């Protein structure tokens, strides 16, 4: 199950919010202005077994604008559905380093794990089952699962704990929810990317979290290129 991201893919998943511009509009502007450079980047992000780079380059050269718009529409719609369905989770539409759209779901630590534990709670299992059901109509996506901790304990301890937490989520999604493990990539981020102040109890609680990124895979991009993505 454990498949650690390369440096290139990690950098591609440093994501930013979309602001006030709609996902569709941004997709069109990005695709129209980027061309082959974006396509090659997409290939690096989605590439598996050496197949992604050539596909990405071809897409960027041919129909970058159309791909951006269609994938943008799809991700906007799914983010809205997930935001409505999931409790105790924050759902965002984000932009990856290749300027393609993705959905980021952040599950609160309080429903996932007890302190210093990577055993899933009953509440978190229910949320993950609902999440898996809600993305059942998107088999043409990949999932990147990132585990985070607060800064309590040693860096070595937190590194392992963050990986174990991400792997717990991935394992449950695979064995109990039917999501193919080959679609999932996991990584532990320890306490390197805090979202709140680790000097407070409330801040440490926010920093103990798991993020799932839903990104277009090769099939979605090919379908967008061919105008078949609804």
Task: Describe the fold and architecture.
The chain has 230 residues and is α+β, with helices and mostly antiparallel strands. It has a single domain (7-225), classed as 60s Ribosomal Protein L30, Chain: A (2-Layer Sandwich). Helices cover 50% and strands 17% of the residues. The chain contains nine helices and six strands. It has helices at 7-12, 23-34, 36-46, 52-85, 109-112, 122-134, 155-175, 201-207, 218-225, and strands at residues 16-17, 89-95, 101-108, 141-148, 184-188, 209-216. It has a six-stranded mixed beta sheet with strand order 1-2-3-6-4-5. The chain is elongated. The two termini are 31 Å apart.
Q: Which key phrases capture this entry?
A:
230 residues; alpha+beta; elongated; disordered N terminus; single chain
């Amino acid at each position: 199950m454990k498949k650690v991201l390369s440096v290139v893919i990690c950098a591609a998943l440093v994501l930013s919010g979309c602001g006030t511009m709609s996902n569709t509009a941004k997709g069109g502007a990005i695709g129209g202005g980027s061309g082959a450079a974006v396509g090659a980047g997409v290939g690096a992000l989605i590439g598996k077994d050496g197949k992604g780079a050539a596909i990405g380059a071809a897409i960027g050269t041919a129909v970058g604008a159309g791909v951006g718009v269609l994938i943008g529409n799809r991700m906007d719609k799914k983010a809205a559905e997930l935001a409505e369905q999931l409790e105790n989770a924050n759902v965002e539409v984000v932009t990856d380093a290749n300027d393609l759209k993705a959905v980021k779901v952040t599950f609160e630590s309080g429903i996932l794990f007890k302190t210093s534990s990577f055993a899933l709670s009953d509440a978190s299992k229910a949320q993950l089952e609902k999440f898996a059901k809600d993305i059942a109509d998107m088999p043409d996506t990949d999932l990147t699962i990132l585990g985070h901790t607060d800064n309590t304990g040693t860096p070595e301890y937190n590194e392992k704990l963050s990986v174990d937490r991400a792997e717990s989520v991935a394992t449950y999604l695979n064995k109990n929810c039917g999501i193919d493990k080959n679609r999932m990539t996991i990584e532990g981020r320890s306490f390197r990317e805090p979202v709140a102040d680790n000097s407070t109890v409330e801040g440490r609680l926010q920093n103990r979290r798991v993020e799932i990124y839903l990104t277009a895979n090769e099939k979605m991009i090919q379908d967008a290129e061919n105008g078949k993505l609804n």
